[in-house]
Amino acid sequence: MAGARAVRTANESDSSRRLYDRIGDFLVDQRLDADPANYAFAYHLLADPDGPLARAVHALTDGGVRLTRRDIETLGCDVQPVPNGKGAKEKADGLVAQTQMQVEGFQDMVTAIRAETEDFGRNLAASAEAISRSTDGNGAIAIGEVARITAAMIERVHSAEARLESATREASELRQKLEEARDNARRDPLTDLPNRRALEEAYAAQAAAGTGICLAVCDVDHFKSVNDRFGHAVGDRVLKAIAEALSQTCTGHLVARYGGEEFAVLFTGVDLEAARATLDTARVTVATKRYRLRESDAPLGEITFSAGLAPAKAGEGLSTVFHRADRLLYAAKTAGRNCLQVG
């Protein structure tokens, strides 16, 4: 029995040690400080490698992107470790619970104010009836009672107003948190561009409105080589630079980071030729810029992207148009890169 316990204890110790080592390796690989918040995040992630947090991290880091402090804060894991990697879900559940409490609190408050108002009405009606039946002497007493009831009701109203003001302030703060959470769910943390989910929603809305749509799929040329030669931090800066160039050139249209080194541009309200001209301007802007390493000022070399551009037909879903634009992107890569193909 003692031997079995010793073996079990040794196995548990080995498992804990392996988890500890993996946490350390993760922090080093992601270049994160070994502070309590980052350690807790790594624990959440690695203790449940198939959980929702792990899936979210995989989506964010697809294509060699490193996590940032904002990523960790967005995922909601700046808390003490929770078993089975449930931190992100618990944050979302917490906002839902707060919303439910707000609704129930307003309902209780309105019910209480209605009851107090009904009591005040009944008391006031009774006092008015007493005044109508009274003589001059008793009338003065009844009027005094009305004044007392009215003063009590005014005090209750003031108290209700204070409670309403406090509840309204709390509701406003909660609404802001919910809006931030909703925005974060639709935004890429590295480039601050809309993400794939935002693209899908925007496409659906524009298609439903009958707006003319052209979709571009852009991919950074030789991006793996940039990461391999200069590291992921430089790769991140390249992605940010291309995101900025696309956003500035394609003003008025939705530019999204689709995943990894791939971007998408949703052109609306313009024809295919206008979309092509705008996208080609963005391509030239990126290709002619001279990139340098921040640390040494050494030249980074030419950075370019290839793109495929396709118009959406009536009734087509995003996946259909994206697939067609993606085939055009592949043709642009085959044609030598740093070019765009239009279909």
Could you walk me through the main structural features you see in this protein, from its secondary elements to its overall organization?
It is a single chain. Helices cover 66% and strands 10% of the residues. The protein is of the alpha+beta class. The strands form two sheets. Strands 2-3-1-6-7 form a five-stranded mixed sheet, sandwiched between helices. A hairpin with a 6-residue loop joins strand 4 and strand 5 (299-301). Helix 8 packs across helix 9 (232-249) and helix 9 packs across helix 10. The N and C termini lie far apart (73 Å). The model is unreliable at 1-10 and 78-89 (pLDDT under 50).
Main attributes of the structure:
7 strands, 66% helix, 5-stranded mixed β-sheet, 11 helices, 343 residues, disordered N terminus, alpha+beta, two-stranded antiparallel ribbon
**Strand residue content:** 5-15%
Radius of gyration: 31 Å
Flag low-confidence runs.
1-10, 78-89
Strands of the largest sheet, in order across it? 2-3-1-6-7
The major pleated sheet works out as: 5 strands, mixed
Q: Give the termini separation.
A: 73 Å
Q: What's the helical proportion of residues?
A: 55-70%
State the helix count: 11
Shape: elongated
How would you summarize what this structure contains?
The protein is of the alpha+beta class and 343 residues long. Helix content is 66%, strand content 10%. The chain contains 11 helices and 7 strands.
